[in-house]
Design brief:
Radius of gyration of chain B: 22 Å
Strand order of the largest sheet of chain A: 4-1-6-8
Number of helices of chain B: 4
Bound molecules: copper (II) ion
Strand order of the largest sheet of chain B: 4-1-6-8
CATH architecture of chain B: Sandwich
CATH architecture of chain A: Sandwich
CATH class of chain A: Mainly Beta
Oligomer: heterodimer
Strand content of chain B: 25-35%
Largest interface: A-B, 41 and 41 residues
Number of domains of chain B: 1
Shape of chain A: globular
CATH topology of chain A: Immunoglobulin-like
Mean pLDDT of chain B: 92
Number of domains of chain A: 1
Order of helices and strands of chain B: HEEEEEEEEEHEEHEEEEEEEEHE
Largest sheet of chain B: 4 strands, mixed
CATH superfamily of chain B: Cupredoxins -  blue copper proteins
Distance between the termini of chain A: 61 Å
CATH class of chain B: Mainly Beta
Low-confidence stretches of chain B: 14-22
Chain lengths: 340, 358
């Protein structure tokens, strides 16, 4: 009886220890950096195979000063963590943070911009608060990932949140400060936190980047390399003329083409900013997806995040676009490739 | 039972087995043309919901009738005889013929373009190779290898689409799902010109011989659409035609909303013929939307509830080009309102009625 009890106790203890050992602290060194961003680095409409449309009356151009989240190798913030070539399509979007339920995400955040910004997850149960980080400062945040942050009964093995700057949500998101936070069900994650049953994760940020509402807009107006036509701040069309409906910060097929293989389990994480010009309908040519249990090829993205699962079966180069024509016509279109 | 009779019965049973076998994949062929028509959004000339006159024409509104192109079904490849639409389906309005398939089938659409502009047929959800995609863009394939991407006036092209499991119901769906097909030569302007229709795919083993789901008594199709006549390929023709543009309006400012028609199946202000349902029957509603500036809709039924995506509701929401299924078992006889709850849409006529017979 006694050895049995000892065995039972040690078994329980080892289970507990094993579980405690599984919960990880996931550390990311993320800075808000100012960059020159081109919405159309190829200077062409790669979908229709023709030149870009002419500039709108009050459009500064196709290149703007923006602020984006970028990941560094350590707390010295001297070396950028280089994004893998197969992820180059992620463009403007901040680094992907993966966590398994039970983990703690630690973000060492450096503000390299000249404006007060921060980094905060949207939607997590613990609602971690963030206060404006002054330019040049570094702050460490800890985000506990609780069970209720993980997948619900009708979700797959992982769910999507966003992190973003919350000092002035409108101005910060239009500057470009947003990224994905993926939470995997307890026991369903690989060592890196990604879901084991998914072969390829695709990040797709559908966003109308309204440059006239970015905190960098005064700087863009005053920079002759961005604003060679010296458009003045008074134009009534300024707001719409400088709004870019983008996929990962690209228009008119300029997004690098993500690859996937036939038969892979591909999970699309669909993010959106929450401007009044947002509200998207992502759609895929060539394949279907499962979204919320339903078989569809178009997803209503009126909330900031949705997940859609695809098992590609039709090889080729296919469109992924927003079906909202006021976004599609001004360039919210990209391509993805299914390899045989 | 006499031996002979028993043998006959067995034979019939075997025949039935072969005939009803769910694994028997079919090729379902449709003869569909894009035909030019004069389309009236309000054929009665009145608001049938309120029994009152239509609102006065807006400053830049040409009228209520426009040149459009719609998909019509024909009996065969001669494209001489229209396949008549049963009176009970008159409410389908501007929608093209319902294309049906069971998982495992092949759909063949023999398409004749009788319209003056190049048109195509592009299917959502089904499996197609690049030659049957019906959508031209830079996809690495030379244009000459994709004849389905551009069907010129008077020409015929045959599209072949497979129906694998991924085109049928997902784990949270019922026995059938809905997709759309539409012209995708110049996507936005084509759809506003009118050629669009529904596809129903039934789970393997769940289809009647005609492809419709066994566990459903009646299917209703409703496309919520903001038809933007400014973006129709027929806009220049409509502007120039004094029958359409009786007030001789000049082309409006680019952002005028006066020629946008908020319609269900292309009909506004209750002008959609009233579909008739029966108490206690299993009725499946297939809801769709198109892709204009404001194609976010909230279809709402008065009088009954539905189950959509596992949830009981009386209102579902549609984003541009989304397709949603809602199941209803009517328990409340009468003539009931079925409309969009977005204010500006309702004000501009996005309302119809349906009837439940006792
Ligand atoms: Cu959009
Ligand atoms: Cu509506």
């Amino acid at each position: 009886m006694r050895p049995a009890l000892v065995f039972a106790l040690s078994a329980i203890a080892s289970l507990f220890l094993a579980h405690a050992a599984l919960a990880q602290e996931r550390i990311h060194y993320i800075a808000a950096d100012e960059v020159m961003w081109s919405y159309a680095p190829h200077h062409a409409d790669l979908i229709a195979g023709r030149p870009l449309p002419p500039l709108a009356p009050s459009q500064l151009g196709w290149v703007y000063h923006k602020a984006i989240y970028r990941e560094y190798t350590d707390a010295s913030f001297t070396k950028l963590l280089v994004r893998a070539a197969q992820d180059s399509y992620e463009g403007l979007v901040g680094p992907t943070i993966h966590a398994e339920v039970g983990d703690t995400v630690t973000v060492v955040f450096r503000n390299n911009t000249r404006f007060p910004v921060d980094i905060a997850p949207a939607g997590l149960l613990s609602r971690p608060a963030a206060a404006a980080v002054s330019p040049g400062s570094t702050v460490t945040y800890r985000w506990p990932i609780r069970a209720a942050d993980g997948p619900g009964p009708r979700d797959g093995s992982s769910v999507l949140y966003t992190y973003e700057s919350s000092v002035d949500e409108t101005k910060d998101q239009n500057a470009g400060l947003i990224g994905p936070l993926i939470v995997t069900r307890s026991g369903a994650a690989r060592a890196d936190g990604s879901p084991r049953d998914v072969d390829r994760e695709i990040i797709a940020l559908f966003s109308v980047q309204a440059e006239a509402r970015s905190f960098l807009f005064p700087r863009n107006l005053g920079d002759p390399s961005v604003n060679p036509r010296r458009i003045s701040a008074k134009g009534i069309l300024l707001d719409l003329s400088n709004a870019f409906p983008t996929l990962n910060g690209f228009v008119f097929g300029n997004m690098p083409i993500p690859d996937m293989r036939r038969g892979q389990h591909v999970r699309w994480y669909l993010l959106s900013t929450q401007n009044d010009l947002d509200g998207h309908a992502p759609t895929w040519d060539g394949q279907t997806v499962i979204s919320q249990g339903n078989r569809v090829d178009t997803v209503g993205l009126v909330t900031p995040h949705q997940v859609a699962d695809m098992v590609p079966d039709d090889p080729g180069l296919w469109l992924v676009v927003c079906e909202f024509n006021v976004h599609l016509l001004p360039g919210l279109e990209a391509r993805y490739r299914v390899l045989p | 039972m006499p031996r002979q009779l028993r043998r006959a019965a067995l034979f019939v049973a075997l025949l039935l087995c072969v005939y009803m076998s769910p694994s028997q994949a079919r090729v379902r062929t449709y003869y569909i043309a894009a035909d030019e028509v004069l389309w009236n959004y309000v054929p009665s000339g009145t608001n049938l919901i309120t029994k009152s006159p239509l609102p006065p024409l807006l400053p830049q509104q040409l009228g209520w009738t426009f040149h459009k192109a719609v998909y019509h079904e024909y009996t065969d490849a001669t494209f001489k005889h229209l396949k008549p639409r049963p009176a009970a389906d008159a409410y389908l309005g501007i929608l093209g013929p319902v294309i049906r398939a069971e998982v495992g089938d092949t759909v063949v659409v023999v398409f004749r373009n009788n319209a003056r502009f190049p048109m195509t047929v592009h299917a959502h959800g089904l499996f197609y190779t690049k030659s049957s995609e019906g959508a031209p863009y830079q996809d690495g394939i030379p244009a000459g290898n994709k004849p389905g991407d551009r069907v010129s006036t008077g020409k015929t092209f045959t599209y072949t689409w497979q129906v694998p499991a991924r085109a049928g119901p997902g784990p949270g769906d019922g026995s059938s799902v809905v997709w759309m097909y539409h012209s995708h030569f110049d996507e936005v302007n084509d759809i506003n010109s009118g050629p669009v229709g529904p596809i129903v795919v039934t789970a393997k083993g769940m289809a009647k011989p005609d492809g419709s789901p066994k566990d459903v008594d009646q299917e209703i199709f409703a496309m919520f659409s903001e038809f933007d006549e400014n973006s129709s390929r027929y806009y220049p023709i409509n502007i120039a035609d004094p029958k359409i543009n009786a007030r001789h309006l000049k082309p409006g400012a680019p952002f005028t909303l006066d020629d946008e028609f908020y319609s269900i199946n292309g009909l506004s202000f209750g002008n959609m013929p009233t579909p008739v349902l029966h108490l206690g029957q299993r009725v499946r509603w297939y809801l769709m939307s198109t892709m204009s500036d404001f194609d976010f809709h909230t279809p709402h039924w008065h009088g009954q509830t539905v189950v959509s995506n596992g949830m009981r509701t009386d209102l579902v929401s549609l984003s541009p080009m989304t397709m949603v299924v809602a199941d209803m078992t009517p328990d409340n006889p009468g003539i009931w309102l079925f409309h969009c709850h977005v204010n500006v849409h309702l004000d501009r006529g996005m309302a119809a009625r349906y009837q439940v017979l006792p």
